[in-house]
Design a protein that fits this description.
Layout (H helix, E strand, L loop, with lengths): L3 E5 L20 E2 L2 E2 H11 L4 E6 L4 H6 L4 H7 L9 H9 L1 E6 L6 H7 L1 H4 L4 E4 L3 E4 L5 H12 L2 E7 L9 E7 L6 E9 L10 E9 L3 H6 L11 H10 L3 E5 L3 E4 L3 H15 L1
Parallel strand pairs: 1-4, 1-6, 4-5, 8-12
Antiparallel strand pairs: 2-3, 6-11, 7-13, 8-11, 9-10, 9-11, 10-12
Helix pairs in contact: 5-9
1-O-phosphono-alpha-D-glucopyranose binds next to strand 11.
Length: 274
């Protein structure tokens, strides 16, 4: 059973400066909801209720968001504004949130390793909140948990991207598992390869299910692309033992780490909710 979801949320969000100078990028709103709330909702939809958030300096707003604001709630109680807080209130009631700080920015792999103290020795999910995912039926994470239950190994979500964009993603190569159209046993993984070196155009997006042996592997993973400890490199060690599945999810993903993707997501949700 997977119960915990890790949110690496220590990054600076430099692509959104100056907005992210004093506001965590995870708190940027698509319509009225901050990005990280969409992520927590996706986790809850998949049956996960323990949220483990790896934060850093200047990220206090995330903790305040997932906490009760007595003064505000008292002010709007009984008014027409009260329902505006009902979604977040219900998340706070259903989930527990715990936090740890990544004191140095040494990459996504290092952020995940920093979360070990909140996760312990059990399989867990990872959501990168700036990849905003939506789907018609089951949430992307719920789909991945189904895959995990079948294969009992690490799972990465993938989608095909234009070949010219491989240098923005972890890219996998693998073989379709017999009888499936969307499930690959991973044979190779490369972090942000140049298009000419990319094994395929199948890109990892910000959803993972990881088995806890990943922590020992991460402890021994040398800095890779960009001088950072990469989760892609650690996963390659598991893949060499046939223990990583890549899953082409059903649904849509917006890269809210880029201004274009953020605007697309905003338009999408505005149309959907309007
Ligand atoms: C990270 C990972 C990369 C993955 C991407 C998904 O990169 O390192 O492998 O494809 O997330 O969003 P980042 O976007 O943090 O540079």
């Amino acid at each position: 059973m997977i119960k915990k979801c890790l949110f690496p949320a220590a990054g600076y969000g430099t692509r959104f400066l100056p907005a992210t100078k004093a506001t965590p990028k995870e708190m940027l709103p698509v319509l009225t909801k901050p990005l990280i709330q969409y992520g927590v909702e996706e986790a809850v939809e998949a049956g996960l209720t323990t949220m483990a958030i790896v934060t850093g300096r200047g990220k206090r707003a995330i903790e305040d968001h997932f906490d009760i604001s007595y003064e505000l709630e008292h002010q709007i109680k009984g008014t027409s504004k009260e329902p505006l807080l009902s979604e977040i209130r219900s998340l706070i009631d259903q989930c527990t949130f715990s936090y740890t700080r990544q004191v140095e920015m040494k990459g996504l792999g290092h952020a995940i390793l920093t979360g070990e103290t909140l996760i312990g020795n059990e399989p867990f999910a990872v959501i990168l909140a700036d990849d905003l995912c939506t789907s018609q039926n089951d949430s992307v994470l719920a789909q991945m948990i189904e895959v995990y239950e079948k294969y009992q190994c690490s799972i990465v979500a993938i989608e095909e991207v234009p070949m010219k964009d491989t240098n923005k993603y972890g890219v996998i190569a693998g073989n379709l598992v017999d009888g499936t159209k969307d499930t690959y046993r991973v044979t190779d993984m490369v972090e942000k390869p140049d298009p000419k070196d990319a094994p395929t155009n199948m890109a990892i997006i910000g959803r993972y299910i990881l088995t806890p042996d990943i922590f020992d592997i991460l402890r021994n993973t040398k800095p890779g692309k960009g001088g950072e400890i990469q989760i892609t490199d650690a996963l390659l060690e598991q893949a060499k033992q046939g223990k990583v599945i890549a899953f082409k999810f059903k649904g849509q993903r917006f890269d809210c780490g880029s201004v274009d993707g953020f605007v697309e997501a905003t338009n999408y949700f505005y149309k959907k909710e309007g």
